[in-house]
Structures are given as C-alpha cells and as structure tokens.
Amino acid sequence: MRGKTLLLSLFVLSAEALIDIYGQGRNTQKSSGYAPHPYFPAVFNTHNCIDKEMHGRKRRIVSQGFSTATINSSEPMIINHVQSLCSALMKSILEHQGSSDNGWSPPQDMAAWNVISDLTYGQPFNLLTSPNLRWLVNAIVSGNRRIYLRFAFPALFNVNPSAWYNPDKWIFPEMAAERQRFLDISTKFSEERMASGKKMSMRNDIMSALLAAKDPKTGTKLSEAEVWGEAHLMIAAGGDTTSTALASVLFYLSRNDAAHARLNNEIRSTFHSVENVRQGPLLNSCHYLRACLEEAMRLAPPAPGALWREVSAGGAIVDGKQIPAGYDVAVCQYAICHNSDYFPSPYVFKPERFFASSSGDEKSHGDYFTHVANSAAASTLSPCLSPSSAFPPGVSTPFSLTPGISTPLPLTPGGTEKPPSFAPFLIGPRSCVAKPFAYLEMSLAIARLVWLMDFRAADGTGEGRPGCGIVGRERREEFQIVDMFSSSKEGPVLQWRRRDGI
After folding, report:
1. Which of 117-131, 172-186, 424-438 has the largest mean confidence?
2. What is the pLDDT of residues 308-334, one digit of tens each?
3. Which residues make Cβ contacts (< 8 Å) with residue 472, sequence separation at least 6?
4. Closest C-alpha among 14, 60, 130, 35 to residue 429
5. Which of 92, 162, 356, 459 has its C-alpha lying 20 to 30 A from 129's C-alpha?
C-alpha cells in the first residue's frame, strides 16, 4: 500500500512504450520510490527529484557541466586515467616476462574503473593503483541494492532508522557504516575541492562548470549543497555504470575472436600511434568500436531493470493501451534488449546489428534506433486495458481516465516513425545528461587498450554456469549481471600481452 491507494505496477515490453513513458511531454512523473528517505534530510538532485519544474531547473544547470566545451577540456584528464590503466597492465606484463606463458600477464580483474571522481572532486580514487578506497565498489553496490528494495517496498524501509524493526538492521547490517564512510569521504573531498578555490577553477572540468553555471531561464545557480548532491550522484551512478559497460565489452571481445580481430584491425589501422587516439574525426570514424560498445551495453545494460514512472492525473496511453492515473509503468531495459522481435539472436554478440546496412558495412546507424514495423507482437499488454479491467477482481476503480493522445514519435529522414528499442541512457527529459562524456570515456579506454595490447580470457569469471538450474544463469557465453538499480558483476578476468610490432 502507498497511502490509501493500492500500488499497481506494469511492465510494458515495446519500443513505443519507451516513448510513451519516458518521452518529452508525457503524462508521467518519476515514481514516489525515488524520493529521499523521510528520516534523512536530503538535498534533491537530478536523480531523486520528482517535481518536473525543480528537475528542469537542475538539469538546465547540470547539463552545462557536460557541454562540448567542458568535455573537450576534460579529455586530457580522461586520457591520463586511461594511460594509468594501460601502464598498470603493461607493468604486469613486464614483471611476468621470462615465464613460460608466452608474454601473457598474470590474470587481471577488470571489474573496477573510475574516472569521474577526478573530474568532480579534483582528485582520483586511484582504485587501480591503491587498495585504500576499493571498499567503495562494494559500498556503492550495497547502497544500490538497498535503494532497489526500498523502491519496491517503500513502506517497509521508510521507518525510523533506530527502530528495532528497521530492516536495515537485519538485511544490510554493514550498509549504514559503509554509507557513512562514503559520505565522510565525499564530504572530505568536497571540502578540499572548495578550499582549493582558484587553483581548482582553472581545471575547466565538470565541477568547475557546475560551480559557475547559471540556469539560463531563471539566472539562479546551484547552491553549494546542491552541487555536492550532484557530485555524490555522479560518483555513485557514473562510475559504476561506466565500469559495467567497459567490463561487458572486454568480456564479449575476449570470447568472440572474429569481432576482436575486426576491432583490432580498425583501431590499429586508423591510428599510427597510441598518442593519436583522442577525440576527433579519426575516433569518430571507428564505427565498429562504437558498435561494440552499443552491443555490449545491449547485452549487459548498465541499468538493466525498471525505471518506474507514475501515471499522472488524467491517465496516459502507453503502447496504445489506456493506463489509469496512479499506476507505475516501466520498460525493463534488459528485457527489451533481449527481445528477439527487435534483436534477432538476442544472446549473440553481434556488433554488426548496429550498422545501417544489413550487409554489415561500416556505416554508422545514425542514432542507433531499431525500428520494427509491427511492434504489436512485442507488447506485453494485451488486450486493451480499461480502468476497471486493470485492477484485480474485487478492487474498485478509484480513478477516472481522460482519453489521452500519444504525441508523434521521432521521425527518420524519410519521414517514417521510429521508436527506440535500444536506449541505455534512456530518452526524454530524464535521459542521462552525461551520455557524450560516457561514450568518449569508453571509446578512449577501449581504443587505447586495443591499440597497445592483445587480451584473452583467463578464466570463466563472469560467465553463466550450464546446469546450475537457475533460469537465466545457464548461458556460459553471457556476461552475468545482477540488477540492483545499476548492475553488479564479477570480472571479466583477463590476461594481457604487448601487441606485436611495438
């Protein structure tokens, strides 16, 4: 129960539903599950802010932190972190020379990767080179797991933290301590960033832009508390999701020799040296690299579950079906990305599916949307729901529904409608504002790794287990993720070797 209203939730598995639920101007809002815990004072950020007007102001300001100019000025810092990763791997190779393993490094776990801390707090977490803050990885996973459960059972978790029946005491006994450690570290880094003043303002990074940005509509700036609320969000969400995407692409390339060889050829023939691997026309021309990133995120979405939206007063039409006000509706990213109506052979790593031509020529697919002419078969809502039939037997309908009209879908250059079936960064006003930054970070990391080194799977970490008896966990070739708002994962564990000729 939520208040006096029965909470009902619906999954809809269609591309049209993505537009109808998350698109611009839809009669939906973020579910109440996003709201901060009532017993913890909180400054709303762009993630947990439900009010559309409040969110609009914050997004107009935060988007300036990810402008083209800011991303361009941040590129040297991204490259510095990518080079640190490459150097650490090359060092492991050199230290293992003379062994009987033909130049391959010892196994390396590729699950952890973080750049965003340096671009927000002005100092890196150094997860690759130092064990001091590696506990943050588990702390973020634990926190996300709790958020997800609270999302599903808000009444269960919205209790006084000191109450004996507080589920945190017996479900997440270590979570409170980890949460406090994370907040302490965040506060420490925040205070150090602010104390550095003018020195840090010269970095021209994301946080510099946020501190200086003004809402073009109201002329207001984010308060200091709001800025650090966004910084905490970037650390908790940005680093974790990017590391999942990179881990996924490395997992699938290490197990698909043809795709791996094709990417090697593209990167090594495009760039004459590793120093040339940076944003610009050459990186933009690497369509197979982009396709590998897209396919890896399709197979292992960084946010694989349901991003719930509550239907507002008057109801909404979702995939042609009438949904009453008060319902929570969502499209599950993992489910739609593995729907064979949109992606034939959905569990096969096939980057070529993201090229415009069925022949697989290296031409970009534009905005990478997949269009299915008749998507009715992909919908899980049939037949049409009326307000009365949508409720369980014996439950009266407490809502009135005003017939709605779905706004037009995006148009292709040819004028035909094309709803997205692949949207790892979501769509509409709540889409990820850091999408361009994430693609640059991932592209630079994979391209530089591939240019310098060969890699192979060292063991089966991250694979499914045939015969385990758990539905969805038996496909050996599938990178295993666990949905907990973001994705939890293990591995892959890889071996690396300096490529021939360098």
Report:
1. 424-438
2. 999 999 999 999 999 999 999 999 999
3. none
4. 60
5. 459
